[in-house]
Amino acid sequence: MAGRLYIPPLDLTRLLPDLALDATPVTNPNLAPRRFLSAIRLEGGRLTLSSLFWGLTPPWLEVLDHAPHCARAESLDTRPMFREAFRARRCLVPVGGIYAWKTLPRAKQPFLITRIDRGPLLLAGLWCRFHTSLAEHTDSLALITVPTNTLLHSLTDRLPAIVEPHEARRWLDPDTDPAAVKTLLIRAPRELLGAFPVSRHVNDPAHQDASCARPIGPMLRVDS
Question: pTM for the full model?
Fold first, then answer.
């Protein structure tokens, strides 16, 4: 499960040259759910970046604390909470990494999961819109998770699905056949991701400094 994200400054236009930056990208070294983050959507044929609330809040949701921040890929077609959004309103969340906690005999050790080359990741998500008035609305999202590969399973059993940049438009386009979209929701290749331990400083989401993501040990990777 993805309960915390690492979002450093990212060169998004190099990743997606036709991306329109309609909002200042959100950066955060230790971002917890129920905060705003940047998401990429396809609007009028343009890739656009805007700020969305992390925690899916459909209009009928009565308790904000019940807003799910993740959705299991296996249940997207069956759960009413996710079904319509998955078919028509998909998004991508650019991040630098995902925090996970390994259970040890006396404590939990936080790790930061990143690309081996420390490049940006595009996480698969879905979104919905809640109109607060005729003129105002709030957009929110949930990340879509898939089972973790064997390399990282000791840290977490699920991670957000990763969409490669060349597949971004296919993922975002609501006209893409749902069966084709689901083929993108696969576990990350063992060679793509690694993880290194970080300070327990990151355990408290109130800590918002660079030390949250600083390695304190070697990277766990497929060739280590």
Answer: 0.94
